[in-house]
Structure formats: structure tokens, C-alpha cells
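Action item from last week, closing it out:
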Amino acid sequence: QVQPVESGGGLVQAGGSLRLSCAASGRTFNTYAMGWFRQAPGKEREFVAAITWSGGRTYYAASVRDRFTISRDNAKNTVYLQMNSLKPEDTAVYYCAATDIATLGPSGSWGQGTRVTVSS
């Protein structure tokens, strides 16, 4: 079981960048695909990006493709989300979780999330 702890959120102007980190406990971290999800105010949680256990394949929601990059460092049990060219509609609480690559849905526990606010 992977227990994630997200960090790196904050307030940024439109067009700016942020890098989110997800430190995950558990000795089996490097056997799990991991993903980032987000929940905007008044909306349901949605998929953002995922990465296979080896880091060899990545997947993105259409709304963030070419702006966001997911990566992982298995030696540090950490997954990253580099977010560039941020838009106000990226404002949300971002969560990471173990992810089912077949469905791009969460398959593990949620962390507390990290809030990203993009001002126009």
C-alpha cells in the first residue's frame, strides 16, 4: 500500500510554473503506477496525468498535455508534476495516488492534497 503526501502547491500568475511533489511511503512504491488528479471548486475530482511503475510510459488529460510533465524517482519514492503555462482553470487541489493504468483511475489511498491557485 502506498500512502502519498503531496506538496509544492501555491499561488501563481497565469503563464507561470509550479512543480508538485508526491512523497509516498511503502517499500513497494516502485511496483505501482502513480497518477495525479485534481479537484476544482464545485467539480468532481478528475484525472490529470499518470506514469507507469518504471517511468517508461506517461499519460495525460487532453487539457494539460504539452503543458504538464509527470516524472518519478523510485530511489526517492517520489512522483513529480511539472506544470508550465498555467491557466486559471488549472486552479484546484491536486492529489496523487496509485493508479490503474487500464482505467486511469485511482487504485490507492489519497493524500491530503496540495492547493494550486492560478490568478489571471
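Closing note: The radius of gyration is 13 Å.
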